[in-house]
Automatic annotation (TrEMBL):
CDD domains: AdoMet_MTases. One of its GO terms (molecular function) is methyltransferase activity. One of its GO terms (biological process) is methylation. Keywords: Methyltransferase, Transferase. This is Methyltransferase domain-containing protein. It comes from Lentzea fradiae. The lineage of its organism: Bacteria, Bacillati, Actinomycetota, Actinomycetes, Pseudonocardiales.
Length: 326
């Protein structure tokens, strides 16, 4: 008997919520890479038995995996989801607990940053996966057109992008991050990649430019999904921050930054990612700016805007600016 197709979007929301949570959890546990490489046998993962079986059965029911004997492997659509898993990890792993406490935050019974917080580790790991899938090609194209020897990655997270770029370009690198956990993970990843002699990781609050070491020797600053942390402190603070950064960098140095622009429509927007991104940033009272506003802030700070490139990540803009040569 043919299955009845039910056109009731409420069930799509349920499916999306559970799928997002399951994929994020399996990525945190390291099971998705195994699943992608050679499939998994749930009983061999050491998970709680009943729930482990139920998890993969659920994914099979939703067409993400299929069973081959006692092993589950990714289907074609499961593989697409695997390639884009960074978005789900970023959302459910990074912001899941905070979103689950939304009632407490809205009613002021809880405060973000004290009782409730995002999980910066999974925000950073998710964002690195997103960058790899949806920004790398554009970044490589931009970097192919400029010359540099030392990359400074502000808000480097787990360091994957920095390692990738140093590998691809022969540059040296310094990664800066405020999170001790991110720095520990980045240091470990740098060692694992064999780049211990080319990349340093420094734990620092990079919103305080004067405490960021080595800027005088860095000719390419990367700041991906970081600058809005400074904008959160106020537009004037952002312009001062960029001005001071510009002063400290050598003449001709580049800054490449990526941010997501707020949706252009306020009602019933069809944008793929913008509204969800803007909403999660609102948990931290962070506002976002569009590429023109970022360009204006960089220009006011003394940089010249070289290029603005649309990323594959919906709503993203890569903005390349340069400190004038003279
Ligand atoms: C969204 S993640 C982006 C990670 C990485 N740039 C990427 O694109 O994948 C933001 C990173 O900025 C770091 N961060 C936030 N505030 C910071 C600050 N004040 N100083 C340095 N790093 C900061 C966080 O710890 C996190 O690793």
């Amino acid at each position: 008997m043919a299955q009845q197709v039910i056109d009731r979007p409420v069930f799509d929301y349920m499916q999306a919520y559970v799928t997002c949570t399951v994929i994020s959890a399996l990525e945190k546990l390291g099971a998705l890479d195994q699943l992608a490489e050679h499939g998994v046998v749930p009983a061999e993962l050491g998970y709680e038995e009943f729930l482990g079986e139920a998890t993969f059965r659920y994914l099979a029911e939703r067409g993400i995996v299929r069973q081959e004997g006692n092993r589950y492997v990714l289907t074609k659509s499961g593989r697409h989801l695997y390639d884009e898993r960074g978005y789900l990890l970023w959302l459910a792993g990074g912001y899941g607990e905070a979103l689950n406490s939304l009632d407490g935050l809205l009613s002021r019974k809880q405060t973000f940053g004290t009782e409730v917080d995002r999980d910066v580790r999974w925000v950073a790991v998710g964002s690195a996966l997103v960058g790899e899938a949806d920004l790398r090609a554009e970044v490589m194209e931009i970097l192919g057109g400029i010359e540099f020897t030392t990359i400074g990655d502000i808000g480097c997270g787990n360091g994957h992008f920095l390692i990738d770029l140093c590998r691809a370009t022969d540059a040296k690198g310094v990664g800066f991050d405020i999170s001790p956990a991110a720095c520990a993970e980045a240091t470990q990843e740098v060692e694992r990649a064999g780049f211990g002699d080319r990349i340093d990781i420094v734990q620092v609050d990079a919103t305080d430019v004067d405490s960021v070491p080595h800027l005088e020797n860095i000719d390419l600053v990367m700041a991906f999904f970081f600058m809005h942390e400074v904008l959160e402190l106020g537009h004037d603070v952002l312009v001062d921050y960029l001005t001071r950064t510009c002063e400290r960098l050598p003449a001709g140095a580049y800054v490449l930054t990526t941010e997501v622009a707020p949706p252009t429509q306020s009602e019933d927007t069809a944008e793929a990612f913008g509204p969800e991104y803007v909403y999660t940033q609102a948990l931290m009272s962070q506002r976002l700016m569009n590429a023109e506003q970022w360009s204006a802030a960089f220009t006011e700070a003394g940089f010249q805007v070289e290029r603005i490139v649309e990323g594959r990540l919906p709503g993203s803009r890569l903005i390349l600016v340069r400190k004038p040569l003279a």
